[in-house]
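2024-03-11 09:14:02 INFO queue: dequeued item MAPEG family protein, len=128
2024-03-11 09:14:02 INFO validating residues
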Amino acid sequence: MTVAFWCVLIALCLPYVCTAVAKFSGGRFGPRQNHDPRAFLDTLDGFAKRAHSAQLNSFEVTPAFAAAVIIADIVGNAQPVTLDVLAVLFITSRLLYIICYLADWALLRSLVWFIGMGLIVSFFFVSM
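2024-03-11 09:14:37 INFO prediction written
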């Protein structure tokens, strides 16, 4: 399995890391809140709410990344090492994005988001 495919697995796991941060950073999540965790997550504020928002954005972008990796692999015109490098850069951008979200660095977060989207698009261009 290629590094790029492993990066897809990492991307699939990142939203759950954000979920754990959102649920347990405030110390308010317990068995009672687990009966309706979505309602609980809607009540969060501050750091925990930003973690929840990072979770939602991670769920939104992961299908596009996975599709880009898979399509680039199927087309097969790009060197595998190029796809691996792009995938690692994308995961790096997602980690930076999550850090920026948690730190409430909105402008930098948006810049990192655009870089991540550019990396997704680049999978298609290197496969032409």
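2024-03-11 09:14:37 INFO annotate: The two ends are 22 Å apart (CA to CA).
2024-03-11 09:14:38 INFO item closed
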